[in-house]
Structure formats: C-alpha cells, structure tokens
Amino acid sequence: MAGNERGRLLRLVAGQPPRAEPPDALAALAKSAVAGDRAAVRTFLVTVGPHLLRVVRRVLGANHPEVDDVAQESAFAVMDALPRHRGESSVLHFVCRVAVLTAMNVRRRDAAQKRYSQREHGLEVELFPGSSPAPDAALSAQGNAQIVRELLDALPQQQAEVLALHCVLGYTVPEIAESAGVPLETVRSRLRLAKQAVRERVLGDPRLGKMVEESS
Amino acid sequence: MNSERDSVADLVVLARRGALPASEQSRLREALLASAETRVLHDAGLEFDAEAPVLAGDEERILRMARRVQRGTRRLKISPRVRQAAQSMALGMLIAGLAIAAIEIARWHPRAKPGAASAVTSVHAPNAPAPNLAHDQRLVPVTPEPALSEAPQNNSPTPVGSAPASARFADAQNASPASKFKSASELFADANQARVKGDLPGAVAISQQLEATFPNSNEGITTHLSLGVLYMQQGNPTLALQEFKIYRHIGSSAVMAEALWGEEQALQQLGRPSEERAVLEELLQNYPRSAYVAAAEKRLAALNN
User: Fold this and answer.
1) Which residues of A touch B53 (CB under 8 A)?
2) How far apart are CA A183 and CA B50, in angstroms?
3) ipTM of this complex
4) pTM, whole model, 2 decimals?
C-alpha cells in the first residue's frame, strides 16, 4: 500500500513517470544498530543526529533552553523504539516522528506546568494589563510558525502529531499515514480537524486575521 | 472530495519542496486565496523551512549525543526549581566550609589563644594572657633560663619583669588605652617616644603590646631588640636575654651585632661566662667590623685571663 500511495503522490509532478521505490539507505545501518553493533549505533546516531536536532528545534523553537536535552532524549527514544520499526515507513521518517513526539511531549508538559502554576498562584496574565504588548503577542506577531507551535500544545495529541508532521516537517498525507502507521482516511480526518482549529484560532484573533489578510 | 483535500495539502508540501509543477501553481494560488488556514499553514511551513538547518556546535552536540547513548547514560532532567535549590545548597555548603577552614586556620596560628576565633580578636581582649613563646615555631630550642629567684637580681625600682605576663599585658592596655587600635609603626613610635622621655615602664608596656599584636611585622621583630635593651636598662637581664635570643633567630642581620652584644651584656650580668665567651667569639667572627669589636675583644681577653 505504501508503494501505491507514494506513486500517487509522485503523479502530481508533471512529466515524471512513476518509478521504483528507492532503497532505504538507513535500513541496513539501523538493522546493524539494533543487532548491537556499537560502530553501527554510533554511525546511525551521527547520521540521524542532524535530523533530530532540526526536528526538535522546529517544534520547540531554536532558542528553547531544552533543545539539547530533548534531542538527547529523542536519541534514546529512537534507539529504544528502533527494534519495533517494521519498515512501514523509511527509517528517517520513523526517526523524525519519534523526535516530533518527544519534543511535543515536552511542549505539552511545559504548557501544563504553566497552567498549573497560574492556577496554583492565582495569577492570570489579564490581571496585569500593561501598555506594551504581551510577550506572547509579540512572539506571535513574528510569524505563523509560532501559531502552529502554540496549536501543537492545545490540540489533542493525535491531531497535533498530524499537524506537526504536515506543517513542521512538510510531509504529505500519504507520508504521514506511513509514518504514523494509520489509514489515509484517519490522517485526512485529523488534518481536517487541525486545520479547523487553525481557522478558529485565526478568526478568533482579530490581530491574526488582519495579519493573514495582509500577507495575502 | 478527499482526493481534492489531499491535493491541496500535498500541493502545499510540494511547493515547499520546490517540486510543484507550473501547471499546478495556479491551483495552489487559488487554494491559498480561498482558505485562511491553508495560507497560515503554507506560510508557517515556509518559515520552518527557512530556519537554519545546522547551527554552530551541532557536530559536537551530535557526537556527545552518540557517546551518551552508547554509554547508556541519560542526562538528568532536573526542573529549574530543583536545580536552583541544589545550587543554593551547594553555595551554603561552600560558605560553611570556608568558615570552618578559617576557624581551623585561626586555631593553628601559633599566637592564637585557646577559645579565640582569631589572633585579631586578641587585640580587643582586655585580659588576654601574654603569648606563650615556648610554642613559637620560629624559635629553636634553647637552654632553659634559671629561675628568677636563682638569677642575680639588681634592685630595680620598677620590677616589671617579675610581674606575671598577663598583668604586664594588662598594664600595657591600661597604660595606653588609646593605642589599642594603633598600627605597628605607631606603636613602635610611641615606645621610642616613651623611652626617650625616660618612661621605661611605659616603653616596655607598649613594646609588649606591639609584640603581642603584630608579632610578624618588621616593627614587632625589631621590638625584641629594643625591648631587650629596655629590660637591661631596667636591670632585668633574664628577660633581656630572652628577647635578644629571639631576635637572633628571627631578626635582620643588619643589627645582629647589636643583639649579640646585648646578649653578652645580659649573660655577663647573669654570671654565665662560658656562654658569654661563646657569644663574644661569634660576634668577633661574624661581625669583625662592628662597633662592638674593641669592647668585645677586651671583654674576651678579660674572660680568658
């Protein structure tokens, strides 16, 4: 099924005939790493390391103080999960998905702690109005990427995962289905709900709505 | 319907990858104009793609990451609150350690008294006992001096040396209360001034205070010599001999002949000719150009005869 879906994606590119699936360059290396070859483990991690860092930075933001820690945690998670990889997707997609999930968990944990702290101390941002724009508003004004990051914290886990794979990593619907190991229809449904949340967020915030109008 | 939605989502992805054919670009434009959320996701995707894929230090980060995974050592994830508490605790332990070390060092100081935190506090203690020179590590063992009762005594009008050390030091404190917080050079000048005025007890008291307060200063070391001279003037050769011997071990060689000559004078008064002869020979051998050479030779000849 995976080969058929990938072929359908490639048909979008005009003049490019369907071609045979290229072999996964990391598959053999991953297999050796799972078998316990120390040199293979090192080579595998050095190869996927840049992708781990890139994914973590995209999800958390490049200036997040825990980027290194989360990338490290992602590397451990990848090595723990690698024996369970059955080849539904490429090894690199599998690695990136693990990193996305690890980084998203950190974001959601931080968001939960922030909410708990506000509830615990009875502090609300609205209680302290100021003349200058709020920091989160200033940050949001920097770009749409931040809107997506904030939605990753707020959306249900599965919708957030699909949104991250689609928007943050740039996966097509079939690629998401392969990586997540779920049917295409499920991915479409989750992506539709995620887009709906984006729309509600944009329409619910006049400032964002204006920004979108200006960018168009 | 689903296929249409997939097409839009995948058009956005292909556009980000730079693989969107020209025939599909108009479709993408229409989709972006028709849907605000598609526009947001498209722009956000472009912003994600524009972020630097590699930053300085990434190679080292990746190698470190690989090493940790191979060793199986996970980084400890410590919350900021716990980290701050640990840092505060470490800082507190460091300060406590430094304080304990300072107290221990003060106890080891040869001049420090039992129960005193530091030598500096002894300056402000009105009833502090005189320093115990027997534990002064700067000195080599010397033959014990005869008891005061056995030594030939002159009828000194001011028997300062016969008083207990604590009493003498208390006298010094009472004699010049304003000098409690003076520097070594000021105390030295005060002692000289008292000596010039003929106030020998006052000069002795100030000199004792100087030795007790600033034992390692130049003035404190030189005071052993001047105090020996003062004791001699007061007719107390036993105490004078102690001061001259101390100076011989820790004093400057510039006026060492003076200390040797003072020691000879004290020994002469104490009636210890053999020791007196040894000191005179040392004086003549080591300081042949000293002002005391003629007198020393004369005294040595008298002793030999």
Assistant:
1) 50, 54
2) 31
3) 0.73
4) 0.49
